UniProtKB/TrEMBL annotation:
It holds the Pfam family fn3. This is Fibronectin type-III domain-containing protein. Coiled coil: none annotated. Signal peptide: none annotated. It comes from the Bacteria. Keywords: Repeat. Residues 531-622, 623-713 form the Fibronectin type-III domain.
Length: 973
């Protein structure tokens, strides 16, 4: 009793020190954030018994837990030294997904950048048309996020790859080249995913471009990608995308199609799940708890029995509470995902589990240079035509509250070879929607180094005492307790409070006290270490003098490594004990010969199987195949080549005459490049050669391309308007592209005509930029005189130099000062407003409150027929209205006073003159033009034979040329 009294006293002191004497409730403050009031902390501990059953063991894969990654459209550099340090400080991660999430829909792995042409197809007038352009500019300033950068991150963090293949915008050939590159560079790929959240690209989704008619159409069309990956990466596992489980209206139709598919060729499935939200924290917690209870039954009922192969592997690629919901990034978010892992890791079909994202998910990385947020500096650098050196950046990093809890659970899961069930009896209850459930949940893990782990989540505000038994006997060993806790379940870590939720660690004996709202890992010594898992050999680089440099990943509890090699595959005649080293230079080899290497890890319990076999040819690499050279944007050409084995890197040679190369670009170890700084309307000739330490290959065959100022973008939303018998009528929409830009760097108004506004350059010497603002006492409009006709979108970056109240923003359908529509931020009442002015009378069409008073905003206004959309930063539409009283007008900047200044302005509009329609009997090959010079956005193909399946796609054309890519492909049954 004395020990219990001491623990109770500690709990009481903790309660007082954290200021918990509040009552539960849920309300919204002025900023729209939840204000949490908590009940008096309960000091009476609930008691529970946890029974671990080691006889019911399920093996789990090495590195079961990993993360999604979304850095390509952020200021973060994926291979920045601090980024790598943060991943390593987190602890072991099994894999890092790339490009990751919605990034994969617009990212071109060849160039290492978000692709304008890829992005434009998915964003209509109500979406972020500017998004691809903004991220493309960011990518240029970063110098791209190349596949070689990703591989550097993997190798320096001992993690494997999870690859998302862009099946909507990239061909089977491109998927095959990606697989070949990864195989040639010995990248361990767990899964290749055929698309990200494909349900949003089907006709029934109501979102994005309907790239696929049905799930069955998706499975037909991506089979070519599957086969190309299999051919080029022996042993590859290729999985398909199911519908997100929290979207039942989509899942029912989409998944039903998948289950009924007659030839399930894939190697597994993936889906995403984000649930748990509400208007108040208690309501959202109830929702999250209910979602936890349904998680395993969802898989056992909705997936496993319906597959022809009931052993189908399942990878949960993204999961968490509702995105953007009241619980995101809170301590309760961490508890939710941690318990999801405990529940799912024991499910027989589950193979790998990912959280949400690495950057701004696992940890926040607010990139800074000289104390200034780098997003501002990157935009300025773009305007000056500069790039940013990542070595000059630092990151103000911290782990989110949710990821602090994930570090606790991953410290068990990713160091273990098996999971054991852990039955909880007794303890407190937590509320769920419509009832209650046990507050405690637990799972135990068999550590590869002989350590035994027990991970426990506590979803209640009550501390609980647990007695731990293993196979019916109390655990007698001294334990280490590592945990997170927060008396406020909505606690978040921030840049100002980086460790409001921190990881704590201490010694403990059995029974153990589990803190309120916590994730706890208990560990104790229990057995001799297992024999090591197999290592991964990721580098076998030939060098001069008959040497090969080998490097490999470490593996758990290995005390040493043996190198095995020979001159025939799987026939190793030589063995070298490398000790604990993770790299070794093998010497005494014969130049011109090919050698085969593998590595085996060992410890006192035995030796691992041999690693992957790696081939090293002691010769210069072969000649790469230059696949494509095509104009991208003004002064830019994209090159794509097929990689070759044994290459350490590639060099691009180019010039203005065939075979006469005046320029050379070092492209590193990549398989594509965006060549910039070229003259428009000039034909360039390109070749690529590969190199390694032994020399350089000959040039590839030559390709040529002509950069143009403003090629059209591929049309979007190709859809079937009518389909009957021998005919099909299709329709599509033109994509918008950036048609004009002005940065005010020359100190003039450029294309703007001031109306009540005089030009006054506003220099910022620290940032080396100039802007445009009204003089004191003035203010009104600056009208873009050559505004595109018809539908357009205008963008402006507005900043406030002081605290002056007033309105500033952008206007559309501007006729004159008394007739226009404007989207402004009003600093007087802290609101975004969409205002219509007719005959001098103002009407607020829509408004939204802003909690703070921002000093810098990207404001966008889009006109599309009678629809007006107001968009903010890269967040998409925040205000919308319908108006027919002002059918046309120009784009303008607006400021009611001198406090605001404009740093840049851009215009977006369609620039297509005609279209070419293509047809094939195959989904990804054999397309031929059947109609050229189509002026309308619709076409009918008739006189077709009955019973023949046809596929169609459309290309945009203007006076400068054709769009680089095509619309989505539709199918006539």
């Amino acid at each position: 009793m004395r020990g219990k009294a001491v623990m109770l006293s500690i709990a009481v002191l903790a309660a007082v020190s954290f200021g918990l004497w509040r009552t539960w409730g849920g309300s919204m403050n002025k900023g729209g954030e939840a204000e949490i009031t908590a009940a008096p902390f309960q000091t009476d501990e609930a008691h529970a018994v946890i029974d671990i059953d080691t006889k019911r063991e399920k093996s789990i894969p090495y590195g079961m837990r990993g993360v999604n990654n979304e850095t390509s459209n952020k200021e973060a550099f994926i291979n920045h030294s601090q980024m790598i340090d943060e991943v390593n400080r987190y602890g072991r991660l099994g894999f890092i997904r790339w490009p990751g999430g919605t990034n994969s829909d617009v990212f071109n792995w060849r160039t290492g950048m978000p692709d304008i042409d890829y992005g434009a197809f998915a964003f209509g007038p109500d979406g972020t048309t500017h998004g691809p352009h903004t991220t493309f500019r960011l990518g240029q300033v970063k110098g791209g996020e190349h596949i070689a950068d990703y591989i550097e991150l993997l190798r320096k963090t001992n993690t494997k790859a999870m690859i998302t293949v862009n099946t909507t915008r990239q061909t089977a050939e491109q998927a095959g080249d990606l697989a070949k590159y990864l195989y040639d560079n010995r990248v361990p790929v767990i899964y290749f995913e055929l698309g990200n959240e494909i349900m949003f690209f089907t006709s029934s989704s109501g979102k994005s471009t309907p790239y696929y008619k049905t799930a069955a159409d998706y499975l037909d069309k991506v089979r070519g990608h599957y086969e190309a990956i299999k051919r080029n990466y022996p042993g590859a596992k290729v999985i398909i995308s199911m519908a997100n489980s929290n979207k039942p209206e989509m899942a029912n139709a989409f998944d039903k199609d998948v289950f009924a598919y007659p030839d399930p060729y894939w190697d597994g499935i993936t889906f995403h799940r984000f649930e748990g939200d509400g208007k108040t924290v208690p309501e959202a917690m109830k929702s999250a708890n209910s979602a936890l209870e349904k998680l395993v039954p969802l898989i056992d009922t909705n997936y496993v029995p319906k597959f022809q192969n009931r052993n189908t592997p399942i990878y949960l690629g993204e999961q968490g509470v509702a995105l953007g919901g009241i619980l995101e990034s809170t301590q309760y978010h961490g508890i939710y995902v941690a318990e999801s892992i405990l529940r799912l890791s024991a499910q027989p079909n589950i193979t790998y589990l990912a959280g949400y994202r690495l950057h701004n998910g696992i940890f926040n990385t607010n990139a800074v240079r000289g104390g200034t947020n780098v997003s501002l500096l990157m935009e300025d650098a773009y305007q000056r035509g500069e790039t940013v050196d990542p070595a000059l950046l630092s990151y103000d990093s911290y782990y989110h509250a949710s990821s602090a809890s994930l570090r606790v659970v991953d410290g068990a899961v990713n160091y273990s070879s098996a999971v054991w069930p852990a039955q909880v009896t007794g303890g407190a209850e937590s509320t769920k929607t419509g009832g209650s459930m046990p507050a405690l949940y637990a799972a135990a893990y068999k550590g590869e180094n002989g350590t035994r782990y027990l991970v426990v989540t506590n979803k209640s505000a009550q501390s609980q005492q647990i007695s731990v038994r293993m196979d019916g006997k109390p655990v007698q060993a001294e334990m280490r307790k590592t945990y997170t806790t927060a008396n406020d379940p909505a606690a978040r870590n921030t840049a100002m409070q980086k460790e409001q939720v921190a990881i704590r660690s201490e010694s403990t004996a059995n029974p153990v006290t589990v803190a309120p709202y916590s994730v706890t890992r208990l560990e104790w010594s229990g057995a001799a270490p297992d024999a090591p898992r197999e290592a991964w050999l990721y580098a076998a680089e030939p060098g001069s003098g008959g040497t090969v440099d080998l490097r490999w990943y470490s593996t758990t509890n290995a005390t040493g490594y043996k190198i095995k090699y020979g001159t025939a595959s799987k026939t190793y005649t030589q063995t070298i004990d490398a000790g604990q080293a993770l790299e070794y230079k093998v010497s005494g080899l014969t130049e011109g010969r090919t050698y085969y290497f593998a590595v085996a890890a060992y410890n006192g319990s035995g030796e691992s199987p041999a690693s992957n076999e790696t081939v090293a040819a002691l010769s210069v690499p072969g000649i790469p195949v230059l696949r494509h050279a095509y104009a991208e944007r003004s002064g830019k050409v994209v090159l794509e080549w097929q990689p070759v084995a044994g290459a350490d890197g590639y060099r691009i040679a180019y010039g203005k005459a065939p075979g006469q190369y005046t320029g050379t670009i070092e492209a590193g170890n990549n398989a594509g490049w965006l060549v910039s700084g070229l003259d428009n309307d000039t034909r360039y000739y390109f070749a690529v050669r590969a190199y390694n330490a032994l020399g350089e290959s000959r040039n590839s065959a030559e390709l040529d391309a002509v950069p143009r100022r403003l090629l059209p973008l591929a049309p979007r939303d190709l859809a079937i308007k009518q389909e009957s018998g021998p005919s099909i009528t299709m329709q599509w929409k033109p994509a918008r592209t950036e048609v004009a830009e002005h940065n005010f760097e020359d100190g003039t108004a450029g294309p703007f005509r001031a109306e009540g506004w005089k030009v006054e350059p506003h220099p910022d010497r620290n940032r080396k930029v100039s802007g445009y603002r009204a003089q004191a006492g003035g203010g009104a409009f600056a009208v873009w005189t050559d505004t595109p006709q018809g539908q357009y979108e205008g963008e402006a970056l507005v900043e406030w130099t002081d605290g002056t109240a007033g309105q500033a923003g952008v206007a559309a359908r501007y006729v004159d000062r008394d007739n226009h529509i404007r989207f402004v931020y009003d600093r007087a009442d802290k609101q975004y407003k969409l205002i219509k002015v007719t005959e001098g009378k103002e009407q607020v069409l829509a408004s939204k409150k802003e909690s703070g008073n921002p000093k810098r905003l990207y404001l966008f206004i889009t006109v599309d027929g009678n629809n007006i959309y107001a968009k903010l930063n890269n967040e998409g539409t925040i205000l919308r209205a319908t108006d027919s009283s002002l059918p046309s007008g120009k784009f303008a900047l607006y400021s009611s006073g001198p406090g605001a200044w404009f740093d840049t302005a851009r215009m977006y509009a369609p620039n297509t003159k005609s279209y070419t329609v293509y047809r094939s009997t195959k989904p990804d090959a054999g397309f031929e033009a059947i109609a050229e010079g189509v002026a309308e956005t619709a076409y009918t193909d008739s006189g077709l034979p009955e019973g023949q399946r046809y596929y169609y796609k459309v290309q945009a054309v203007n006076e400068q040329g054709e769009s680089v890519t095509f619309s989505n492909v539709i199918r006539k049954n």
